[in-house]
């Protein structure tokens, strides 16, 4: 066996092991779906005051009160959307914008598909965090339909104040609200902010 082949034989398993180790402690965003109807320029109206985007959150991964979880999620979302600047707020009854809202379910036990979040009429069953693992299903809802949706996972999350929890919610926000619709080829020709 040549020296090059021997080195490749040793390096490959080490590289795979390092990749798996790095990914196991990472924040992972998956199952991303941006609708063809997603219009980032229309989101500019959700900036402060009565025009804030309502966020409905379900679940308490560490047994914290629901209001504290909602406030932490909203604080982690601020300033992380793409495109026009938006302000997020905890949704009240009735939500500030009942048709347009963000729905997040933390560690849901019965829901596996983010598309169901926009049609929820009752809070889903959720579980507490086990071994610092948190899974969040998130959707930007326009009525009963998701304009964008994603699933996020993180490990090593010890509390709501954990930087890893904040990072997970911030990444989900960037994923739900990209600066341009990836299905829209007009963005390639657009030369005004926030199209490039």
Reconstruct the topology from this structure.
Elements lengths: L2 H22 L3 E7 L18 E6 L7 H12 L10 E3 L9 E7 L27 E9 L2 E10 L8 H14 L20
Parallel strand pairs: 2-3, 2-4
Antiparallel strand pairs: 1-6, 4-5, 5-6
Helix pairs in contact: 2-3
Q: What's the β-strand tally?
A: 6
Largest sheet: 6 strands, mixed
Average predicted confidence as pLDDT = 80
CA-based gyration radius: 19 Å
Approximately how much helix is present in the residues?
Answer: 10-25%
Cα shape: globular
Helix/strand-derived category reads: alpha/beta
Q: What proportion of the residues form beta strands (DSSP E)?
A: 15-25%
Strand order of the largest sheet: 1-6-5-4-2-3
Describe the structure in your own words.
The protein is an alpha/beta fold and 196 residues long. The protein is 24% helix and 21% strand. It contains three helices and six strands, in the order αββαββββα. It has a six-stranded mixed β-sheet with strand order 1-6-5-4-2-3, covered by helices on one side. It starts with a helix and ends in a 20-residue tail after the last helix. Residues 17-24 have low confidence and may be disordered.
Q: How would you briefly describe this protein structure?
A:
It is built from three helices and six strands, in the order αββαββββα.
Characteristics:
24% helix, alpha/beta, six-stranded mixed beta sheet, 196 residues, 3 helices, globular
């Amino acid at each position: 066996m040549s020296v090059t082949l021997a080195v490749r034989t040793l390096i490959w398993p080490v590289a795979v092991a390092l990749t798996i180790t790095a990914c196991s402690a990472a924040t992972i965003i998956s199952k991303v779906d941006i609708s063809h109807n997603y219009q980032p320029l229309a989101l500019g109206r959700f900036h402060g005051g009565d025009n804030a985007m309502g966020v409905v959150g379900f679940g308490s991964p560490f047994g914290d009160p629901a209001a504290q979880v909602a406030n932490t999620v909203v604080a982690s979302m601020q300033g992380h959307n793409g495109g026009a600047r938006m302000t997020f707020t905890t949704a009240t009854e009735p939500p500030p914008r009942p048709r347009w809202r963000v729905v997040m379910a933390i560690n849901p036990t019965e829901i596996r598909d983010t598309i169901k979040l926009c049609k929820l009429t009752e809070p889903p069953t959720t579980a507490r965090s086990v071994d610092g693992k948190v899974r969040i299903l998130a959707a930007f809802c326009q009525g009963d339909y998701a304009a964008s949706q994603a699933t996020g996972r993180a490990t090593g999350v010890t509390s709501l104040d954990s930087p890893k929890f904040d990072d997970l919610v911030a990444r989900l926000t960037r994923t739900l609200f990209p600066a341009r619709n990836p299905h829209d080829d007009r963005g390639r020709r657009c030369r005004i902010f926030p199209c490039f």
